[in-house]
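Ligand: manganese (II) ion. Inputs:
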Amino acid sequence: MNQLFDALPPVLAETSDGNRFPVRRVFCIGRNYAAHAREMGKDPDREAPFFFTKWAETVVPSGTTIAYPPETGNFHFEAELVVAIGKGGRNISEDAAKAHVWGYATGLDMTRRDLQFEARDKGRPWDTGKNVEQSSPLGLLHPASAVGHPESGSIRLTVNGEVKQDADLSELIWDVPEVIAYVSRFYRLEPGDLIYTGTPAGVGAVVEGDEINVSIAGLTDLTVKVGAPARE
Ligand code: MN
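Predicted complex:
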């Protein structure tokens, strides 16, 4: 039998120790900082964690110029701490969770906010708002063996040098072990899975020509530019 066309090549994220990390799936936690939940018009205090998923192919490296996506006039940045899973497991306990982590990176959960809100308010799926081409920029992955498990420290985002998001990782409502335990109740986590842990307050829109920089204490900065819409 002939293979009709090329299979999708794996997405290979770069690591700080000179390796490639094959990305398997992307899980994104919603409303995980209280001030951001409030700016989205929700009460952060009474909500269980929730998440949505994105295709692995939405992951792009630092330095990418992201094409401004179609069907939106409100393309938002969300700076996030990303957890990279190195060891799989189902129903992982919070106590065991750190042993499943390969490492950490800075990330962006880019969002067509207008489509996300329309879907949210009509009770429809978030896919068109969240699972957007090139919408999961990922910085250099640092092994936990080198950087530990960050529980506090600055998370900051600038657009063209102007500070838009400025918070601390200690403000996460559901911390990394809790998030791993929660997601692994629904899916067996596998090596290569990425969990974007949610964004702090201050999200906003970007336009073509903007440069976004994300910095998290102890990790390498992530920088992307917003380019013209893709024509093909
Ligand atoms: Mn997000």
